[in-house]
């Protein structure tokens, strides 16, 4: 097929066609951008609503947690004033009372407020020394040697028993 139209008319038709296509493409892009903007603003408002609800819930929870902490603190202060004896303090004091040559294997406190210490040592003099020191401790009473056993390598296993006084 032979095109006998002059070049100016061809250029004009091509320009008109590109003009229509570019208007359609620009219109589509404009619709897409507007749609995306509306959708984004909708998401932002929804997130802001959720954030407001979460802030409200967190303030309510923080008030509840604050009340629970105050109740726990009050219970601890009541227990602290009612009980002069602190088991954590006993453990800390045992580090000072027990000489370095004696190794505690077990330390148990029973419901009847008795305690049992199972320890090992190399020096026999440490057995008498530890009993004396534990009897002088203000929260221990009637510390007695239950049993001793000589293990291999001249290690002495000893069991001590006593009462916890408040």
Explain the overall architecture.
The chain is built from 3 helices and 4 strands; from the N terminus they run ααββαββ. The chain is α+β, with helices and mostly antiparallel strands and 166 residues long. A 4-stranded antiparallel beta sheet has the order 1-2-4-3, with helices on one face. Strand 1 (102-109) and strand 2 form a beta hairpin.
Q: What is the compact description of this entry?
A:
With 166 residues, the chain is α+β, with helices and mostly antiparallel strands. It is 60% helix and 22% strand.
Biggest sheet statistics: 4 strands, antiparallel
Radius of gyration: 43 Å
**Portion of residues within helices:** 55-70%
| SS field, number of helical segments | 3
> Strands of the largest sheet, in order across it?
1-2-4-3
| Helix/strand/pairing category | alpha+beta
Let me know the number of strands.
Answer: 4
Low-confidence stretches: none
Calculate the mean pLDDT score and round it. Answer: 85
Strand-residue fraction?
Answer: 15-25%
The backbone outline, from C-alpha atoms, is elongated
Span from first to last CA?
117 Å
Please trace the helix and strand order, writing H or E for each element. Answer: HHEEHEE
């Amino acid at each position: 097929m032979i095109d006998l139209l002059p070049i100016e008319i061809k250029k004009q038709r091509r320009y008109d066609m590109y003009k229509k296509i570019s208007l359609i493409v620009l219109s589509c892009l404009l619709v897409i951008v507007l749609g995306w903007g509306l959708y984004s603003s909708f998401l932002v408002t929804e997130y802001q609503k959720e954030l407001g609800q979460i802030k409200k819930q967190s303030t309510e929870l923080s008030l509840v947690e604050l009340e629970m902490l105050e109740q726990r603190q009050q219970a601890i202060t009541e227990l602290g004033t009612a009980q002069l004896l602190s088991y954590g303090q006993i453990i800390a004091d045992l580090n000072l009372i027990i000489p370095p040559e004696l190794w505690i294997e077990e330390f148990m406190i029973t419901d009847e407020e008795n305690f049992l210490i199972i320890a090992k040592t190399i020096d026999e003099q440490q057995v008498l020394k530890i009993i004396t020191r534990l009897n002088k401790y203000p929260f221990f009473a009637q510390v007695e040697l239950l049993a001793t056993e000589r293990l291999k390598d001249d290690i002495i296993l000893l069991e001590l028993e006593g009462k916890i006084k408040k």
